[in-house]
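Continuing from the previous page of notes. For each protein in this section, the sequence appears first, followed by its C-alpha cells. Read the first protein now.
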Amino acid sequence: MGGQSRETIRFETIRFDSRGTGLTRGRCMAVDRSSIRYDCCMNQFFQALDPDSIQTHAKGPSGSLPLSDEILRQWTSGDIFGLTQSVGMGFDPRRVLGDQFLILSTQGGVRAPDGTPIALGYHTGHWEVGLLVQAAAEQICKHEGVPFAAFVSDPCDGRSQGTKGMFDSLPYRNDAAMVMRRLIRSLPQRKGVIGVATCDKGLPAMMMALAGTGHLANVIVPGGVTLPPSVGEDSGKVQTIGARYTRGEMSLEEASLEGCRSCGTPGGGCQFLGTAATSQVVAEAMGMTVPHAALAPSGQPIWTQLARDSADASHGMVQRGETMSDILTDDALFNAMLIHAAVGGSTNLLLHIPAIAHAAGLKRPDAAAFREINRMVPRFVDCLPNGPVGHPTVRLFLAGGVPEVAWHLRNLGLLKTQARTVAGMTWDEILDQWESCERRQVCRDRLRDADGIDPDEVIMTPKVAKSRGLTSTVCFPSGNLCPEGSVIKATSIDPTVIDADGVYRNRGRARVFVSERDAIAAIKGQSEPAIQAGDVIVLIGRGPIGCGMEETYQITSALKYLSFGKQVALVTDARFSGVSTGACIGHVGPEALAGGPIAKVRDGDVIDILIDRNELTGHVNLVSSDDSMTAEEILASRTAHPDLQVEPDMPEDTRLWAALQQAGGGTWGGCVYDVDEIVRRLTKDS
C-alpha cells in the first residue's frame, strides 16, 4: 500500500439463522479496511441445508394436452411448446386451446395480500393495478379464454421533478411503447390485449402500443385516481412545500404534516387533471375504453368492475370481428381533442395525441388543428388544477365523467357521434342511454350526499361556464422568440392578472437560466438576485436536444403557490406538468439548441407577452428598450447565450431519442420515431 494510511473499521457480522428466517448477530471485530475481501463474510451465505429439500426432478403436470392430428401437422413448434409451457405453470391442460388474451399492465411494486408494501412501487398509479389484472383474468376465464399477463412498469414524473430522472421521462414513453408492442407480438396466438395503465408515461405508451397493434381486439383499462385527504393539501399543491417553506410561507411542522397525508388512498393517479388523468379522459374519448371508465376511484368495487367489463369488451370484439383499427379513426382523434379542450386538460397531450395517431397510421393533428377545436368549445369542467373551485378528479368521475362531457358536446352539435367504441356501440348509442341510466344517477347522487357538491357545479353546461368566465384551454403564441410557436394553458392563468377584456398582458425584465436547478434556487430566494414580482423567467436549453424535454413543474407549482408567483411569467423550450397553471409558456420552437432565438435572450432584456384568451392568439417578443436597434436587429447581432449547452448529465439513451424524434417532426410532431424518415436520412449518402 506504499505510504497510504490504513484505516481500521469496526463492524458487526449479521447472519441468517439455521432456518433462514431470522438474524443472529456476531461479535464486533476490528478489521484493516485494505484487507477486506469478499470471502470474509461468505459464511453467512453458506448455512447448512437439509439435502432432502433439494429436488432434482418432478412428476410434472397430470393429464394430457388436447392435441389433434391437425395441430401436430400444421402448428409451429413454438405454438405447440407454448401449450407445454402453459400447463407447466399449472394451467388446466383441458383449457389451453381457448382464445388467448394478453393483459398488459404497468404494475409496479410488490403488495402483500392485505395491501401492505413488500417492495414499493415508484408511485401510487401503478401500485394497485395488479387487482385490475386479476379481475380481468378471472373474467377471461369465465369466457373459457386463456389469460396471460405481462408487465412494463413506469416512472413517476412527480418523483423525478427537479432530478436527473426527468431526463428519461418523455423518452421513456417511446421505449415503453416499443417494449409493449414487442411483448404483444411475442404472444403469437393472442386475440386481444387488455392494457391496464394509469399515469403520465405508462398510459400514453399503452395507447401507442395498442394503437400500433390495431389488428387485435384491444381495450384500455384506465387505472383510476387516488382520493384526496379528508383534510389537507392535494398532491399537486403539496409538491411546493419546499419552496413555500424556504420563502417563509409555511412552517416545518405544516410542511411535514401536509407532505405525509396528501395521498388519501394508496392507489391511482393524482387527484388533479394533470397528464395522467387527462390521458385517461383522452383514452375514453377515443373510444378505447368501456363507457365511464376514466378517473374511477382506485381500489373500489366500481373500479374493479371496469376490468371485468373490459375483458367482456375485448371478448365481444373478437366475437364481432372488430379490432382497434375500427375504433381509432380521424373522428376518434377529433373527439379526443374536443373533450381535451372541454375538460381543460394537460398540454402534454399535445405530444401524446399526435403520437397515438402516428402509431395508428392516422394523420397527426398539428397546432392548427388543436387551435381550431379550442376555438369551438370553451372549458366547462371545474377540476384541479383549474378553477374556479378546482374539484378533485374523483368528483369529475362522480359528476358523470367523460360521458357527461360528451353529452354536452353532442348537444352543441360538436361531437362525432358515429365514432365507435370498444363497447360495440357508437357514441350516439351510448349517449342515448346515458341521461337516464342508473349508473349516472347513482354516481351523481353520491357526490351530493358524500361531499355536498352539485354535479352541475363540476361539469357545467357550456352556457353557464361561459357566464362564469371559463375560457378555451390551449393557446399557441408565436413571436420573435418563438417563430415556430409555443403553448400556454390559457384557461389556467390566474384571473386576477387578466385584464377586463380577457387578455393577459405582461412586459417584464428577463431572468435567463440554463438549468432548472438554478431557476428554482432563484425562486426560493437561495441565490441573488432572487426572483421577484414582474420578472420573466426565461429557461433555455431544456428541450429535447438539451435534456430530453424535461417537465418543469417544480418551477410552475412554486409560482402558483408563492404569494408573488402570479406576477411572474415563465418562457421555456421545456414542457410543463399537466397540473401547471399560470402564465407559463412552453414548447418554444425552435428550441434553444436547435438555433431558436430564445437562445439569445440576456438578463435584463424586455420581454413582452400577450395572451388573448378570447381569440386564442398571442405573442412572446423581445422588444427593444431604446431606439438604437430594433428587436430583430438585436437578435441578429447576438450569438447564443454563453452558458448554453447540452445537459452534461443527459443520458446516452436520451441523446439517441432526441436525434430520432427530431427526424419524426420533433415536439410538434409528437416526439415520435418516423422509421421511414429515419431510414431515408441514414441511407441518404450511402
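Done with the first. The second protein uses the same format. Note its length before scrolling.
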Amino acid sequence: MINTAPNHKHTYDEQGRMTCCTLEEKIYTEAGAEQLLHKKKTIDSGQDKVQLQAHSSVWKQYLPAIISFVMLLIGIALDNYFKPSFFTNYVRLAWYAIAYLPVGLPVIKEGWEASLKKEFFTEFTLMVLATMGAFAIGQYPEGVAVMLFYAVGELFQKAAVNKAKNNIKALLDVRPSSASVLRNNKYEEIKPEEVEIGETIQIKAGEKIPLDGEMLSEGSSFNTAALTGESKPKSIYKGAQVLAGMLNLDKVIELKVTKKFADSSLARILEMVQNATARKAKTELLIRKFAKIYTPIVFFLAVALVVVPYFVLSNYVFNDWLYRALIFLVISCPCALVISIPLGYFGGIGAASRNGILFKGSNYLELMTKINTVVMDKTGTLTAGVFKVQAIVTNGMDKTDFIKTLAALESKSTHPIAKAIAEYEKNETQTYQATEIEEISGHGLKGNVNGKEVLAGNTKLLKKYNITYDAAIDEIIESIVVVAIGNQYTGYVLIADEVKEDAQEAIRQMHLNGIKQTIMLSGDKNSITQKVAKQIGIDTAFGDLLPENKVQKVEELKQDKTKIIAFVGDGINDAPVLALSDVGIAMGAMGSDAAIETANVVIQTDQPLKIVTAIKIGKATRSIVIQNIILAFAVKAIVLVLGAGGLATMWEAVFADVGVALLAILNAVRIQRMKF
C-alpha cells in the first residue's frame, strides 16, 4: 500500500537513501496523491477547498448554456409536437427571451463595452444584431440557437486555450515552494527567492531543485523532463551545474547556489513561454487586420441586402430580405479565424515546449518553416564541448611546472578548453596564482604567473607577439593550446573534443526537411573544422574565425535575399551572430546567458537533432493554420451565397459560423497530441 499521508516524514540512512518507503511513494506524497487515491474521503483541507472552488467555477461557466439549451429544446417541442394553446404570442416570446438571456447577456455586455471604446464592428455586435433581428421578425428559436451555439463555441475556445496553457504549465511550472538552506550550521526552510548566491542548499531524494547551483556532493541522478522534455535520467557529478526544476532521484545532495531564483534557468524558461504569445506570427496579425476591415464590410453588405431589393423588385417583402441579411451577418462572423489561428500557434509553442524547445514568439514558429540555410557553431553545438587533456609536450620545461603555470592562467577563463586544463591540474597539491589576466579575442590569454609573462592560446597568439615556435605544430589537426613563457615558446597541450551522437543524423534530417545548405563556422583550427564537417556531412565549413569573422560570414550570406538563415550557437561570442540571423537558435543547457537571451529559439537539450524537430513543429503548425483558413473561407463563401439567394436558413448560418469555429478549434488542438 502506498503511503500517501501528507504528514508522513521520510527517514534516510547515512548515504542519503530513504529507509521508510520507496521513491515512488515519496513522489506520490509530494504530488498530493491522497485525494486521487481516496476520492471518497472528506475534503477539508484549504488546498482541496480551492480545488473544489475551481471545479465549481468551471461548472458555473457551462450552466448558462445548459439552461438555454434545455429551454430551447422545450420551446421547439412545444412549437412542433405538443402545440398547447397557451404557448402563443407573448407567452412564446417570453419563453424564448428567457432562454436567450443566460447566453445573450454576456455577449450584449461585451458588445456594449466594445462600443464604448468606439469598436462598433465586432463579432459581439454582429451576433447581437443578428439575434435581435431574428426576434424582431418572429424567428425566436433561431435567435436563441444562434446565440447559444456562439456561447458554446466560446466555451470550446476557452477549454482549448486552457488545455494548451495547462500543458505548458504542467511542463514548466515546477517551482518548489521552499529551499533548505544552510544557515548557522543548520538547514532552514525558506522561500527560494530569499536564498543568496554562494549559500549551500540541501535537496533530498524525490525533491525538486529550487535554484541553479554547483554540485558539492559526489553525484546523483536527475529527472530533467521539466526543462528538456527528456524522460531519460541524467547523472550529474561534483563540480557540474544542476538546474532549478530538475528532480533529484537518487540521494540527499548539497549544492552551492550560483544564481538567484529570478535568474535561474527555470525562471528564464517560464518568462520565455509566458511572453511568447506577445510576439504574433505574420499570418495571425494579418487575420486580425483582415477581421477589422472584413466585419464592417459585411455589415454594410447586410444592410444593402435589405435596402437594395426594395428599389429593384416589385414583389419586395421586408421580412424575407431582413431574414436573409441576418443569415448573412451570422455567417460572416470571423470567429473561426480569430479563434483558431492564435490557438494553433499557441498549441505549436506548447508542443515545442514539451519537446525541450522554447520559441520566444509564434512569429519565429512561422519563420522556422521558411529557413533554407542553417549556419552552426562547432564547439558546444555540433561537438560536446567537453574537452580533456590528451597529451602535454614541453620544450625543455618540467611538465608539472608547465601544467601548473598554464592551469593558473586558464582557471580565470570560462572557455571549455580552459576548463579542461584547469580540471586536469586540480588534484595537484601546489597551485600557482595568475594576475593581470587579459583575454585577447580569437587568440587566447595573456597574464602574469610567478612574475613571468605567460601567453596561452592558438598559434595566432604567438605570431601576434612575434614568438617563434616549432613549425610542426601547424600540421597538428587536433585542438592544441600553445604556451609561451617570458617571450619564449615553452610547449603545448593537446585537447580532444567529441562530436555529439546525433550531429550526423541532424545534418541528414535537415537536408531531408528542406534545408538546402548547412554551414559550420568555428574559431578552432581550420584543419579540425574541415575534419568534423566531413565526418558529419556539413556542406561548407570555415575555421580559424574570430567572432567578427563569423558576423562577416553571415552578413555575406544575407546579401543573397533568397537565403533565410538560422544560426545555431551557444557561446557569448555567438550572441552578435544570433542577433544578425533571421532565426537565432541557442543551445540552452550549456549555452551562455548572453546567447540564450539573444536567441529567438532555445534548445534545452543541446541536441542538434532538435533543430529538425523545431522545423517539423513549425511546419505542422503552419499546415493546421492554413487548413483552418481554407475551411473557414470555403464554408462561409458557400453558405453566404446560399443565404443571399434565400436557399439557406439560420440553422445553416449557425453551422457556417459556430460549426466551422468548433471544427477549426478541434483541428488546432491536434498539434498538442502529435509526436515529433
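What the second structure shows: The longest strand covers residues 488-496. Residues 105 and 128 are 9 Å apart (CA to CA). We return to this in next week's lecture.
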